[in-house]
Amino acid sequence: SDKPTLIAHTLNLIVDKIHTTLQQQEKFTLALAGGGTPKPLYEALAQQSLPLEKIHIFWGDERYVSAAHPDSNQRMAREAWLDQVDFPSSNIHPMPTGSNDPSVDAQTHDQELRDFFGVEAGEFPTFDIILLGMGDDGHTASLFPKTEALTVSDRLITVGNKDGQPRLTFTYPLLNHARCIIFLVAGENKRPALAQIFSPDGDETLYPAKAVQPQGELIWLLDEAAGAELNG
Ligand code: 6PG
Asked: Which domains, ranges and CATH numbers included, belong to the chain?
């Protein structure tokens, strides 16, 4: 499908899951992706009528910049969606980036998540949906090829590394405890990495998105340009 069709499909999937899940439970937890691809999705979510007081928003990764910085994933989602609607501010749970030490902020957010979900050390919470993107190098969240962050298994949040710049990121075990992971991937530049990820010989340390294998549902949503080489 083309990109607008992909976005419309993703929107329907998320909105359906929110409504269905909230028939069984009080809160819906949604982790957002950064990057450019999901922006029209967030704009479309802003047009929906949703039970915002029951929806809690998190981010799967964050660049180590202030919330006002143009590169901030939080800023993008606020501008496209959260600030456009009457979202209760206490339901928005951004990654902190203000301590001058990314590992301190990672630890702070780890504890915030444990407190919110009520999980002990050594346990991992289950997000209802984690939305992820994939870079053309096969990274997802801020889990970059051949970086230390790929090996972290004892906590929820760690410090990722993009060409020497720190970022905060969900760890693999946190991602893999999700009830549902949705990868939203568009564009021709994503084809080579997708080919590796869907090949049995693809290497997970070179293509980190490949190691995202949640206990729940795993859904890859691709536009025509990204998915072309996977057919046949
Ligand atoms: C980020 C991300 C990252 C992103 C991919 C794809 O903060 O950059 O969350 O993992 O999803 O880099 O980005 P694009 O959608 O811009 O291609």
From this structure: 3-133+156-189+211-226 (3.40.50.1360)
